[in-house]
Specification:
Number of helices: 11
Shape: elongated
Distance between the termini: 39 Å
Strand order of the largest sheet: 2-1-5-4-3
Number of strands: 10
Strand content: 15-25%
Largest sheet: 5 strands, antiparallel
Structural class: alpha+beta
Helix content: 40-55%
Order of helices and strands: HHEEHHEEEHHHHEHEEHHEE
Oligomer: single chain
């Protein structure tokens, strides 16, 4: 498709001698910014901001269509929150936007308001003239034609002027890499959904195995105590003491499960504080001694902190439920490269990792390795019968 719509052709505007180098450096920086994020919404935001900065535009947007004539997501840059609220609901797929969502090539306009498909915009919408639209194409889709994943919209060159051929080429490169970043982010979120489903299944299993069994024992013991009250009060008192002990253990088990179900403190308090709090609760709920220490840890991207937290929880679960450990230590240490290393060590009975794999028992190791790999990290495990276990996860800096 030609790079114009209608008769509003822009000048080619060849770049100056320094523009190509500047453009390559800017694209490189934009790609690095996109690659640091895994959540879809954040990737969309970074693509939009990078496109606006790269082409020196006043306004940028990225729309992802839904199947009902609207946009599943629409991200803007260059518009304040107040302006965006005043503009109103997300735009529908009509006018120039509708045309762009059905094109696989760029659209460059001298003045978007003079385009045949232009249908106006809300009162609070900023005035726009020079315009450049670029589709984000999924070239790996099964269909014969590339699928439009979204469209990047740019308007108004800062200081006036028009978008050039050079601008269009830079945006084309950015859009190609944006498609990869967006695909990776969607795969990550899908993987996270599957992992969360697995977490729910594991917690349900824990509730059945631990809490349900204790409650069943508590009920039997309480019934026995009730039958002994009249004929053997001393024995009844012993049974009631056992009821009290079982009830306390059940409450502790429930408290430990609730801790795993509520990682929300991570966003509010940060990784170190959240880990410290969870270790403290688990220390009260189990007979093993637990300890936590942190040193030199900087704030990490949300995806990395969430992965470290979940791996710590899985390693603690294994140590407390399967190893018979008397002591478990959790340490979180910063690295010179602004990353972090998590270590969970126990003095339990240990095991032979090779034998565990051959027997088809994984103790959540595959899940932990997947979590580490999803955020660019590595996970190692050291264990041997009678030697305890060490789980170590390292993530790179942002």
């Amino acid at each position: 498709m030609p790079s114009t719509t209608g008769d509003h052709r822009t000048p080619e505007g060849p770049p100056t001698a320094c523009d190509p180098l500047t453009g390559i450096e800017a694209v490189s920086q934009a790609l690095l910014a996109m690659s640091r994020h895994l959540e879809v919404r954040e990737v969309l935001r970074r693509i939009t901001a990078s496109a606006r900065d790269l082409l020196d535009a006043e306004y940028a947007a990225l729309g992802v269509p839904d199947d009902h004539g609207g946009f599943a997501q629409f991200v803007v840059d260059g518009v304040t929150d107040e302006q965006w609220r005043a503009i109103g609901p997300l735009p529908r797929q009509h006018g120039v936007l509708a045309e762009l969502l059905h094109e696989t090539g760029p659209t460059r306009l001298v003045d978007v308001r003079k385009a045949p498909a232009f249908e106006g915009w809300p009162t609070a919408h900023p005035e726009m003239d020079a315009f450049l639209g670029m589709p984000v194409l999924d070239t790996d889709a099964a269909e014969d034609e590339p699928r439009v994943m979204g469209v990047i919209f740019l308007a108004n060159k800062r200081g006036g002027g028009l978008f050039t051929d050079h601008d269009e080429e830079l945006l084309r490169i950015l859009a190609a890499h944006a498609a990869l970043a967006l695909s990776n982010a969607r795969l990550y979120e899908r993987s996270r959904e599957l992992t969360l489903a697995g977490e729910r299944a594991r917690i349900a299993h824990d509730l059945h195995d631990a809490v349900s069994q204790k409650l069943f024992s508590l009920r039997l013991t309480a019934n026995a105590a009730a039958k002994l009250v009249d004929r053997d009060p001393a024995r009844a008192r012993v049974e009631l003491a056992e009821v009290s002990r079982l009830a306390a253990e059940a409450a502790d088990e429930l408290r430990a499960v609730v801790v795993e179900l509520r990682p929300a403190a991570l966003e509010e308090d940060g990784l170190s504080a959240t880990l410290a709090s969870q270790v403290q609760v688990l220390d009260r709920a189990h007979t093993a001694d637990l300890a936590f220490a942190a040193d030199g840890v900087r704030a990490l991207p949300p995806a990395q902190e969430a992965a470290l937290l979940r791996v710590a929880q899985e390693a603690l679960h294994n140590a407390l439920r399967h190893s018979g450990a008397r002591r478990v230590t959790v340490t979180l240490t910063g690295t010179p490269a602004r990353g972090a290393v998590l270590r969970v060590r126990d003095d339990g009975r240990g095991f032979d990792p090779d034998s565990v794999r051959r027997a088809g028992r994984h103790l959540g190791l595959a899940s932990m390795r997947d979590r580490a790999a999803a955020v660019g990290g590595t996970l190692t495990l050291e264990s041997a019968p009678g030697k305890g276990t060490l789980v170590e996860m390292e993530v790179p800096g942002a």
